[in-house]
Every structure is written in structure tokens, then in C-alpha cells.
Amino acid sequence: MKVLAIGGAGHVGSEVVKELLKRKAEVDVVVRKEGTKVSEGANAVIGDLLDPVFLEKVLNGIDKLYLLNAVTPDELTQALIAYALAKRLKVKHIVYHSVFRVDHFKDVPHFASKFAMESALHTFDLPFTIIRPNYFSQNDLGLKDPLTKAGIYPMPLGPVGVSTVDVRDIAEATAIALTTAGHEGKTYNLNGPDIVSGLGAAAIWSEVLGKEIKYAGHDMDEFEKQMRDKSPAWSAFDIRMMFQGYIERGFVAGEDDIETLTTLLGHAPRRYIDFARETAVAWQSKPVAPGFSTAA
To answer: pLDDT in tens for each of the 296 residues of the chain?
Structure first.
């Protein structure tokens, strides 16, 4: 089986590619720049996702497509080009990486793009599976300095919280959907078993780090201002709207989500506290790697 992985060089996509390689799939990974590292055993193909000529070439002969579009102003255009060409070339199956509760967050730009892409998938006859992950536990890998130096948990998860999901579970679920039968037409909500609020996250990090960690709160104007120091203005606004949605509308797993994911994986989804414990140990032994994107 030959799989094209769009988004397969990123933090989440690279884990998906590793799981596909474990299952003996042949994997091509689209990258934008020469020298971009991909998982050992995968093949990097260099090109522009806005170039239909390039995409038609790399999709030719592909059995299945993993489509994870980066959060960019032209995210939807990139996704629709890839999808249209996959239909034309009769790719056997596409697994689209969307986001949890996408239909309830249409005011968040990158959620709206993903919801539009989901609508396209439902309109035509190309076999598809949609995965909808929650907030990644590994987003918090990038919080070493505020946690260990300032004693602050800075992510505005709010008072209700989110059902954080481990990237390793996302990768396994995606690879299973791509390499085994019975997933066509299905949408999987990928949630972890614990609801993590802002105060709850601070309490977990207090426990695993052995020091008091305080929750920074959820002043969204201040949060967006801080994000603008690190990201383009459009991205800071997008991320602000996502977290504001968490606070206003909640991001908690549905009644059957954990049971469904457990059945799909063949094991219970990983817990946030276990991720935090592993991370605390890793921080003591070596420098932390750059954090994951805060965009779900």
C-alpha cells in the first residue's frame, strides 16, 4: 500500500507516518523545502500544495491519502486542490485530519476551513474517514520555561476544561483507519479520558514538578497580545478564538467517544497526567524539543 502524507513532516503528521511505516505501508511525505527531515523509511517529495501540477504528479499511483493541512490563510484552498485531484485520480481512500467539535466553532477561522472541507468530503463519492482530535497533550511540551522558571501554567483552558488527547493515540488511530478495512464514511472524535481545566492542569504540573504552579487565568485580550509577539496577527486572532471557544462552549468528550477510541486503538487512550509525568522526567534529563502547535 502506498500512502501520500500531506502534513506528514510536522509534529503530529510525523507520528502518523511512523505508525504507517510500522504497518509496512510505503509513505511519501510532501515537504516545502529541500532538507526537511521526514521519518526514517519515508520518502520526501518537495513541492507547493497550491500547485495542482505538482500535486497531480505526486498523487498519481497513490493508494491512500492522509490530509493534514497546516493552519494558514489558504488552508481550505490547499485542502480542496488535494481533494479534487485525489477524486480525479481515483485514490482509494482519504483520511482527513479535522478537529473536535468543528461544527460548533464556525467563528474560528481554521475550524471553519476544516468544516468546509468535511462538507466537501460528504458531497462526493471518494471513500473517506474523518478524524477529529481534541487539544493535543503535546501542545504543552513547549511550556518548560513558564512552568519550571515562572511557576505558571499559561494556556487558557478555562474553568470547564478540555478532553486532551495524546498525539500517539491520534497517530495510531489514523494509521489504523488508513491500513485496515471498515472505516469508510466514519468520523472519529479523538479524546482522552481526562477533562483538563486551567486550574486542573496547574495542579497536575504542581504534582509532577514538585513545586507550586499557578494558573495564569484566561484574560483573552492579554493572551492574544502575547500571541502576537510570537505569531502573525491573523494567527494570534485564530488561536485566541479557539481558546475563547473552549471557555464559552466547552471542549469535553461526548458520551461514547472514549469507548469508541478504546475499541479503535485496542487499548485505553493515554492520560494527560501520564504525559506530564513523562515530560517532567524528560526535562530533567535533557533539553526539551520545541512544542507542538497550539492550534488543534
So the answer is: 999 999 999 999 999 999 999 999 999 999 999 999 999 999 999 999 999 999 999 999 999 999 999 999 999 999 999 999 999 999 999 999 999 999 999 999 999 999 999 999 999 999 999 999 999 999 999 999 999 999 999 999 999 999 999 999 999 999 999 999 999 999 999 999 999 999 999 999 999 999 999 999 999 999 999 999 999 999 999 999 999 999 999 899 999 999 999 999 999 999 999 999 999 999 998 654 444 454 45
- Rounded CA gap, 69 and 67, in Å? 6
- For the chain, strand residue ranges (E) read 2-6, 26-31, 43-46, 64-67, 93-97, 128-133, 152-153, 187-190, 214-215
Could you tell me if 196 and 261 are in contact, meaning their C-beta atoms sit under 8 angstroms apart? no
Angle between helices 11-22 and 167-179 (to 10 degrees): 50
4 within 8 A of 30, measured Cβ to Cβ? yes
Count of C-beta atoms within a 10 Å radius of residue 153: 25
State CA 131 to chain mean position distance. Answer: 9
Complete domains list, the chain, with CATH: 2-134+166-189+254-269 (3.40.50.720)
| Rounded CA separation 94/66 (Å) | 6
Distance between CA atoms of 184 and 91, rounded to whole angstroms?
Answer: 13
Sequential DSSP letters for 70-116 = -S-TTHHHHHHHHHHHHHHTT-SEEEEE--TTGGG-TTSHHHHHHHH
Residues 120/94, Cβ–Cβ less than 8 Å: no
Joined together, the cell numbers standing for residue 222 give 492579554
Contacts of 80 (CB under 8 A, 6+ apart): 117, 120
Residue (of 70, 93, 71, 72) closest to 83 by Cα position: 93
Burial of 287 (0-12, 13-18, 19+ CB in 10 A): exposed
What's the pTM value of the predicted model, to 2 decimals? 0.94
